[in-house]
Design brief:
It is built from eleven helices and nine strands. It has helices at 16-43, 48-57, 75-86, 90-110, 113-124, 241-277, 289-317, 323-348, 350-353, 359-367, 376-391; strands spanning 129-133, 149-153, 156-167, 172-180, 191-197, 203-208, 219-230, 279-280, 283-284. The chain has a four-stranded antiparallel beta sheet with strand order 2-3-7-6, with helices on one face. It is globular and about 80 Å long. It starts with 15 loop residues before the first helix and ends with a helix. The model has no long low-confidence stretch (mean pLDDT 96). The chain binds coenzyme a persulfide.
Length: 393
C-alpha cells in the first residue's frame, strides 16, 4: 500500500532495517489484516488467525533479543510495526502492543534469568500472549492506590483483588500485575510487581468489556481469589512494583502514540483519494478550500505525530529516560488522530458516517488512545511534573 504523503522521502532516525520492517508489515497488513478489520469489529471476534500469523512473522517479539526468541530489532522497529498495523486495524495493533510493551517488556527489563528462561522465551517468540494488570475499579489514573493484596505464605504469596481493562486477559499465558504487599504503606511505595502463570485456580475471568472501539480486542476483568503465586515470580524487590510499572508505561505510551498515528494515517489514506475523485458542483471536492484546509491539517498532524513517536522510540533505543518524550508523543498523536479522523469523516460526508468506509471505525478505535495507558490529562501531568522537577536540579 502506498502512503498518501511524502513517505518516499528518507525518514530521520531510519536505518535500512526500518524500511525493511515497514515494507514487510505494510504488505502483510494490506493482504491479511485489512480484509478482516470490518468483520472482527462487527462480530467482536478475537482474531486468533492474525495472532498466529504475527507469531510466524516474528511480530510478537520485535524489540526483544533473538537469544530470548524475539526478532532482535529495536524499539523504533516495534513502533513502526504498531503504526502500520493500526493503519488498517486498531484491534490488531492493540493486541500486539499490549502483548509486547506491557505483557512482555517488564520481564525483559526487570526479570530474573529464571523468569526470562521460563516466560520471556515463550512471550517473545509469540508462543503465548502476555497481559498486564495495573488498573483496578478504584485505582485508575491514581494507579498507586492499588487495593489488590499479596500476603506472604511461606515461599508463596496469596493474592486477592480485581484488575480491570486487561488487554489479552482471556488469552494470555501470563499476567504481570501489581499488588500491595505492605499495608503500612498506603501509596505507591507499598506495591510489588508479580508474574502469574495460567492456568491458576485462583485467577478467574471476570467481565469481558463491550467497548466503543477496538471491539475485537480482548479486554477483560481478572479476579484474584486466594491465587497462590510463588515468590520466585516476584518481579523485582518488594515495594518497587509501582516504579517498574511506571517505567513500563513510559515505553508503552510510545506504542499507543504509534497506534494513534497509524489510525490517522489510515484515515488520510482514505480521505485524500476520496477528495480527489468525488465530484460535487462539477469538480472534485479536493479543489474546494474548505476540504484543502482539512487535508492539510490532517497531513501536518500525521507528520508531526510521526516525528514525535519516532523520536521517543529513538531515545528509548539510546537507553535514555523517555517519560517526557513518550507522554508528549502519545498526547499529541492521540489528539491529532481524533482531529484527523473527524476530518476524514467530514470529507467523506454520509459515506464517512457509514460502515461502508473504515473511517467511522477508526474514529471509535482512536478514542482509546486518549484514554489507555494514561489519559491525556495524566500525560499533561507527567509532562508538567517532569519540567517542574527539572528545575529542582
Ligand atoms: N519511572 C520511574 N519512577 C517513577 C515514574 C517513572 N515514569 N513515575 C513516577 N515514579 C516514581 C516517583 O519518582 C516516586 O518515587 P519516590 O517515591 O522514590 O520519589 C514514585 O514513583 C511515586 O511517584 P508519584 O509521586 O509521581 O506518584 P503518583 O501517585 O503521584 O502518580 C502518576 C503518578 C499520576 C503519573 C501515575 O499514577 C500514572 O501514570 N497514572 C496513570 C496510570 C496509567 O497510565 N494507567 C493506565 C494503565 S494501562 S492498562
Amino acid at each position: 500500500m502506498k502512503a498518501a504523503i511524502t513517505y518516499k522521502d528518507r525518514v530521520p532516525f531510519f536505518e535500512d532495517h526500518h524500511y525493511e520492517i515497514r515494507e514487510l508489515v505494510q504488505g502483510y497488513a494490506a493482504e491479511k489484516v485489512a480484509p478482516r478489520a470490518r468483520e472482527i469489529d462487527e462480530t467482536k471476534r478475537f482474531p486468533t488467525e492474525t495472532v498466529a500469523e504475527m507469531r510466524e512473522l516474528g511480530l510478537l517479539g520485535v524489540p526483544f533479543p533473538e537469544e530470548w526468541g524475539g526478532a532482535g530489532l529495536d524499539y523504533l522497529s516495534y513502533t513502526i510495526v504498531i503504526e502500520e498495523l493500526a493503519r488498517v486495524c486498531g484491534t490488531t495493533a492493540i493486541t500486539c502492543a499490549a502483548h509486547t510493551s506491557l505483557g512482555t517488556n517488564p520481564i525483559h527489563e526487570f526479570g530474573t534469568p529464571r523468569q526470562k528462561e521460563k516466560y520471556l522465551r515463550k512471550l517473545a517468540s509469540g508462543e503465548m500472549l502476555g497481559a498486564f494488570g495495573l488498573t483496578e475499579p478504584e485505582a485508575g489514573s491514581d494507579a498507586g492506590s492499588t487495593r489488590t493484596t499479596a500476603v506472604r505464605d511461606g515461599n508463596d504469596w496469596i493474592v486477592n483483588g480485581t484488575k480491570v481493562y486487561c488487554t489479552n486477559g482471556t488469552h494470555a499465558g501470563t499476567v504481570i500485575f501489581t499488588a500491595r504487599t505492605d499495608p503500612a504503606k498506603p501509596g505507591p511505595a507499598g506495591v510489588t510487581a508479580f508474574i502469574i502463570e495460567r492456568p491458576n485456580p485462583g485467577l478467574k475471568l471476570g467481565v469481558l468489556e463491550d467497548k466503543l472501539g477496538l471491539r475485537a480486542s480482548d479486554t477483560r476483568e481478572l479476579v484474584f481469589e486466594n491465587a497462590r503465586v510463588p515468590d520466585e515470580n516476584r518481579l523485582g524487590e518488594e515495594g518497587t512494583g509501582f516504579k517498574k510499572f511506571m517505567k513500563t508505561l513510559d515505553s508503552g505510551r510510545i506504542s499507543i502514540g504509534a497506534m494513534a498515528l497509524g489510525l490517522a494515517q489510515g484515515a488520510l489514506d482514505v480521505a485524500l483519494p476520496y477528495a480527489a475523485e468525488r465530484k460535487q458542483f462539477g469538480k472534485p471536492i479536493g479543489e474546494f478550500g474548505a476540504m484543502q484546509e482539512r487535508l492539510a491539517d490532517m497531513a501536518v498532524g500525521v507528520h508531526t505525530a510521526r516525528l514525535a513517536c519516532y523520536h521517543a522510540a529513538a531515545l528509548k533505543d539510546r537507553g535514555e529516560d523517555v517519560s517526557f518524550a513518550a507522554a508528549s508523543a502519545k498526547l499529541y498523536a492521540s489528539e491529532a488522530a481524533m482531529r484527523a479522523i473527524d476530518s476524514a469523516i467530514q470529507i467523506l460526508g454520509g459515506n464517512g458516517y457509514s460502515r461502508e468506509y473504515p473511517v467511522e471505525r477508526m474514529f471509535r478505535d482512536a478514542k482509546l488512545c486518549e484514554i489507555g495507558e494514561g489519559t491525556s490529562e495524566i500525560q499533561r501531568m507527567v509532562i508538567a511534573r517532569t519540567m517542574l522537577r527539572s528545575l529542582e536540579g
